[in-house]
Write a structure and sequence with these properties.
7 helices; alpha+beta; three-stranded antiparallel sheet; about 280 residues; elongated; 10 strands; Tetrahydropterin Synthase, Chain A
Length: about 280
Amino acid sequence: MAEYYQENTEFNFKKFAPVFIGVIILIVVLGLGNRLFITLDATERGVMFHPFGMGLDKDNVYSPGFHIIAPWNKMYVFNVAEQKSEEPMDVLDKNGLSVNIDITVRYFPTYNRIGYLYEGFMLDYASLLVIPEVRSTVRQVAGRYTAEEIYSTKRSEVELSIIKEAGSKLKENNIEMKALLIRSINLPAEIKGAIESKLKQEQEALAYQFRLEKEKSEAERKRIQAEGEAKANQIINSSLTPQLLKMRGIEATLELSKSPNSKVVIVGSGKDGMPLILGNQ
């Protein structure tokens, strides 16, 4: 009886051994599936870490798609889509006056450099790199200008300086800065009022100066016109000799004599021998 039971047990084990092995493999695969199979979306890139080999493979960047990796390796996935951060901050102008500036920065990782980015800042590069660099640059640039310049007269220049300097620093660390905008600049109420009052006075002064320049230009135009007319009259007068005037007078008299109202023309009886017309009705 014991021999029969042993034979059946061995027979059953041999029969179902492949099934047991398959189940075990399936359990292992399901348990390690998230480490064996990785799918990268269109806005993602990956970089591999080999704990038993070369370590972080910084130069080999995985593109979007399906990937099979060894379970002991680890892939770090980066979102390379454009991101946005908004940062309000208090800075000091060149005179030590506090200015509140609200900044918006748009950026994304340099695709083929994410391995180097991870080596320096891991996946938290926004808070470890982007925001600190932007804040530092804004403070440095603001410290070179007065509050009035930052608020009004040189706002564009301030913004361009921040973009140039922050963009250069981020690019050195494998971040592409798409844009940086100054959304708002806030000053203490009394300072803001004083600046706006000064700007209004400057605008009024400019408008007054414009009117003066316009009137001066008009006066100059009239002077030049008068001088031109005087010169023209002078030329005409110098050309009117007595002989020419007498000839023109005779021509005019002859024309008048043709009028129905002219009755008698006496030649040589007028002043300077000019003809007279008599008998007008």
